[in-house]
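Annotated sample (chain length 349).
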Amino acid sequence: MPDLTIKEMTEKDNIRMSPYLKIRYQGSVEYRDDQVVVSTCKICTYKFPFDTQTCSFSFKSVLYSDKEVQILFNKNHEVLKEESIRVMRTQYEWLFVNLTSNTSLDNFYDINQTVIVYSITMKRRSILYIANFLVPVLFFLCLDLASLLISNRGGEKLSFKVTVLLAVTVMQLILNEILPASSDRIPLIAIYCIGVFGMMLLSLMETIFVMYLMDKDFQDDVTDKDQSLNESREDKLDKGNFHGCFREMKKWTHCGCFNNASADQQPHVDKEGSSSQLTEVSLALEKVSDELGQIDRKMIELSSSKEEEKPGYWTRMAKKIDKAFSFIYVISVFVFLAVIFSVWIPKPE
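Output written by the structure step:
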């Protein structure tokens, strides 16, 4: 029997060789044997999990040259493919695509040997990786986009973004387990995950910066309010002095009216005239006091409404930065996803 071997085989087959062979009357001998082959195959994981790999099996003789042993093979690729599909029972992670055969010449210590090379093309099943990794990461990115609608006041937005970022970090740990290590280039799935993580980290830093500006404006408002409270207290003291003086004046007028009534006996006409004049002065002073109180209340209402409607300088600046960043961030996310998926996902044949 010719000593045929497979060049890519890394482990020796432990299955016992078949002891049966068929000898025909023309002198030809037919021998069949099944083998379990563990071989090496160079895999390119750049488009993982949408990758298609091609592995080769090279059959050659160990000692005999091409003049001593002539190896024949089937050159019809369609027949090889159909026969392979017929005998293939199960397909797990990989789907069989095609099988081709060709011949080459190998020079081994100045001995030319014929090598028959069978190339098997396989396609990885990607549905499991899409459901368990790609779609969850995309959902986390959508949550981060939705967090742009949350108000920057308070810590709800910041805590939400940190939680989503930690979830993407856990997905990166899962990627480290499922991604094959035999690759010369950075896989697109790693670029996808790093890109999403980087954009979400940038969004988190922008939220921290905006909250810092708004907090700075809030501290300035607190200082201004303290000063305004002090001024309002002084105004209240002045107003209290004014009303006290008004009450003293009113009291003085009443006392004057009473003293005029109980003093020297004056004509009845003078008494009524002086009392009516004092009453008119008292009523005028009360009217002025009421009008001043109404004006004071209106001024307080107008000042409070202006303070509520008009935000501070840093708050206005933070809102402008947040709007500009949100617009640029949304556009960047869609451009990044469109570019990477156009390169990543293979075009249908």
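Annotation: DSSP finds six helices and six strands in the chain.
Annotation: The CA atoms of residues 99 and 198 lie 42 Å apart.
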